[in-house]
Amino acid sequence: MSLIDRDRAHLWHPYAPASPRLPLWEVEDAEGVTLRIMDDDGARHEVVDAMSSWWSAIHGYRNPLLDAAARRQLTRFSHVMFGGLTHEPAVELAERLVAMAPADPSRPALERVFLADSGSVSVEVALKLAVQFQAASGRPRRQRFLALRGGYHGDTTGAMSVCDPVDGMHAAFGGLVDGQVFAPRPPAAATATREGIDTWHDMVAGLARIHADELAGIIAEPVLQGAGGMHAYPPECVRILRDIADRHGLVLILDEIATGFGRTGELFAADHAGVVPDILCVGKALTGGYLTLAAALCTGEIARTVSSAGPLLHGPTFMGNPLACAVANASLGILAAGGWRQDVRRIGEGLACGLAPAKAFDIVADVRTIGAVGVVELAHPVDVPAVTRAAIRRGVWLRPFRNLVYTMPPYVSTAADVERIAAGMIGAISEVHSGIHEGVPA
Q: Which of 159, 207, 211, 250 is the S-S candidate for 153 at Cβ 3.0 to 4.6 Å?
């Protein structure tokens, strides 16, 4: 029995049914930006990973600096409980995160770090922090959140509650999550007008005013909404959220799990707007895709206020895992060297050029890029298995969803890699959704 058949017999994969016909490819090796995979028929393929393993492997696979950091930590200890104990990798990571976080001399700094297991868990911690902060400030009724339509913040229960309640992935769980307050999706960056931004501002401000006495905070993915539709919006909208939060005494939570560490062209997407949140959530690329780790950073004011009333009521078993922290420090060290900015700019320019021909396809609703992100939005849902197979034949690993064929390549991708990714996306769309544009090579 093949490994793929053994998998299908027992494993359950993300966002998929437990099915003996689930499309799967076995990864045999990975190095740099290349995955070596095998299909059901035993055929082997070398593909460029255009997904960075769900946006996390920004430095590629088998990175020598990250490998070395993991090996060094393994010679000391791979894990120890974080309750009552501490260790050098966690302390160094907290110091690094605080030093690189968005900052503004006129605002409280992000200076306290809670280490979490995953991005979803960091959102759970952020929501709890906001509620406990309001309670400790004498406002115990403030337990709801103002979130944005089109937003996605994770799959755990609290995180689900602030995801898009209609078009998101969690509409089936309405009875499981508390009802939050949802503002309209911000206008698209490419087409936003002064009138459109002002109208959006008025709607969000009105909702905040009506519900202020019951809201603990506002949560948003700054500048780019990820799994909710790869929707880029103007940085001014983030500044609007900051102003509304200040006006009503709300905690502003910015979810940078997908956008943090350079993906949008700034170290954090909030930097496009010059906004410092009260709580910042990071994850995914934090360890360069090696191990699961996330963090919630908060201001000293929030930490002191919550602590004045008691402990933060959260404590993961693997909190502050030393192995993950050591690799994260190495990953952040690579970013600190500064080359990521040129890499992201180069990738973005390559994607903008390489994906431009898709604008002529009748079935394509939009083509957009921001930083090292390239998106082709179709007018109807993507045939995911067929587009995936067509891309593999062109030497590219893609994972489309809904009506989007998109890429977030590793920062170490060369110009040739980016060209291959863009050509693979266009060719796969052309082959699968045939008849969309004459003369497009398959």
A: 159
